[in-house]
Design goal:
The protein is of the alpha+beta class and 419 residues long. The chain contains twelve helices and 23 strands. A hairpin with a 5-residue loop joins strand 14 and strand 15 (287-288). Bound molecules: adenosine-5'-triphosphate and magnesium ion.
Amino acid sequence: MRVSQLFTKTSKTVPGDEVARNAQLLIQAGFIHKEMAGVYAYLPLGLRVLENIKNIVREEMNGIGGQEVSMTTLQPRDIWEKTDRWDDQKVDNWFKTKLANGTELGVGLTHEEPVVDMAGNFVHSYKDLPFYTYQIAPKFRNELRAKSGLLRGREFLMKDMYSFARTQEEHEQLYERAVEAYCRVYERLGLGDMTYRTYADGGIFTSRFSDEFQTLSEVGEDRIFVDEAKKVAINEEILTDENLQKLGLNRENLVEKRGVEVGNTFHLESKYTDALDVYYVDDQGNKQSIIMGCYGIGISRLMGVVAEHFSDDKGLVWPENIAPYQVYLVRIGGEEAVKHANALYEELTGIGVDVLYDDRDERPGAKFADAELIGIPHRVTVSDRLITSETYEYVARNGGAATELTRHELLVKLGRPNN
Ligand code: ATP
Ligand code: MG
């Protein structure tokens, strides 16, 4: 992609209506557009990051056998009445709407009822189980406060997965396998070290705890108490002596931290399947309940967390795995530089390296400032000065001084030594 063609531009001014650093940076660098509080559009650069995060999540969910679907945003009222959740007292942050004839609808804020209703068409016998199904789709929640940029949207992107098992034992296996996949997701996003499996409230239908995945951050809304040795934490909401004892945790070694909830997995027991009359028949011909788990990851929230965490006073510092492009190619100088930069751009894109090519007739300082703000991992400069020595100037966005590299050394840096 050529910067001269990109329809978005960077901005030097910090948006006055944003207090969250992730939103300030992402707006200034041209990744997102604020439609209104808690509602953001993704611009070309931002969409590439979002897609990269989605793909990591998708690979890990597919890796444990998750089957992807896409459910609807508009939801009928009756399925929510069967679980007794339509009432605003039970679920308080719904957007609801009406058909022209007055029929009330829910606007998707979660999908347990629809997924069970859908699965009910296909699940009859023990042979039809177990399975996981998931989607990556927008969710809508009428959040009271939406001042944290992508960390708290009124419209946001979630991956939600659901497991259907025949027995409690089978459920436990599916559940732990999903948790392991979650850990791999955070690892691949560069957040593994600072993300804790955290015991939390289990929701209205079970006495068991849920597992939240909390990424340590000063801007986190949740207070958690971390056991560093065991690499687990407990949410303040359930911090009682009785629970500590149940979990085998000791109050004295726990350290208080702030966290952002980047995922949450629940044991649903058979509350939803029973309520929606979805059962299976076992190999003896007996009708049995189906045990469910549900597993959410905040995709857009994760983008905000990464932006917030991997940044410095100059701008964003994307981890390689999810960066919108791998190389920011800067061209400085006259005709010769143009020729060489064009050739390098063609060569790198030809071998599959994603390059954002700053081919504008801008001052070098302005180009470097944009490179830093946008936060692409590798910056490569082609300049008149270096053409005779057949080298490129190379700077890694995550630190280190500028060095001069030969073509081969550059390809090694980019992980393509054999080209
Ligand atoms: P919170 O306590 O932060 O409001 P929640 O517990 O209501 O979140 P869940 O229903 O558990 O959220 O949703 C699953 C995941 O979706 C959360 O772990 C979080 O990562 C993400 N998520 C929830 N609400 C939002 C939101 N308003 N904006 C962005 N991501 C969200
Ligand atoms: Mg939650």
